[in-house]
Design a protein that fits this description.
single chain; 350 residues; alpha+beta; 60s Ribosomal Protein L30, Chain: A; Phosphoribosyl-aminoimidazole Synthetase, Chain A, domain 2; 2 domains; 7-stranded mixed sheet; 6-stranded mixed sheet; 24% strand; globular
Amino acid sequence: MTGAAGNSEDRSAGADPFPARSTGEDRLLRRILDVLPAPPGEGGEEVPHLILGPGDDAAAFAWPGGGTLLLTADAAEEGVHFDRSLHPLRAIGRRAVAAAVSDIAAMGGRPAGALVSLVAPPSEELAAARIAEAAGERAAELGAPLVGGNITAGERIGLHVAVAGTGAPGAPLLRRSGAKPGDGLFVTGELGGAALGLALLRRRTEGGTTCLDSAEEALVARQLDPAPRLEAGAALAGAAHAGMDLSDGLALDLHRLAAASGVGASVEAARVPLAGTGARGLEAALFGGEDYELLIAGPPQAVIAAAGTAGIRVTRIGRVTAAGEGIRLERAGRGAEPLPRRGWDSWAGR
């Protein structure tokens, strides 16, 4: 559920970004990257425009005249990323665009335009048109107007969204690699809301309840209409050493950031800002996914100062450690334990 340049790990990092216990998505990505030729410029060949190839939330190219061109792509497939019994047509289009734009936010960039490839059965023409309308609406709201795409027939509805974005001249990119032992670990917003919202939608569909209170409706909104953290990404890029968006859950995405940077990490469970409460809220935050908040690693004072200046809420949840210490979760009264490399995985069980 992360970007196309992207959803893979940095092959230049010292640590193996795809350990033996990788998720299904990561295993497939390793197989693909192993057989693909190295992108121009990564194998010693001089290609001046390429800044960053596979291994992050977006690919990056030097833009003539200054600045950076960012490119990413994401997919939303019926039965995998959305369920039409749970997700209204409007939500399907808006969520797909937001997920792709979040990859631009994760690089500290600004979206400039979007392409949507729409797949649908011919019998679903009206539904497809409504989804496309919602996608175009959300793209315009996020500063990435729909500038083209493709339509083709298929057995199920699917959207493939490509987004082009920009980085300002001289502005640093927010990459997954670069975290250093001693950095603080931060997240924006609250975590777990989208997963809890999905559970509420399922309960309502199954007849468990028809009325939700305002807090529950807010959780449902996190699932149906996520908001990429564009302002936060742009504000924190210059202060942070590393970062990425949280599309697949804090635990899995933290493993990815740590692997790309060649470091370990320790998270304090009591510090994680939860959209829910108790053990269920923590479970959703760690493993639920689809929050599209940002995970940031950097010098604590610099990150806090940058967030404060921009009016961005960040919460320190832990610290970056040496690679040999692994990825740990600290619980009050229980000490530290390994944090599983687990989260939302579209290939799980497939």
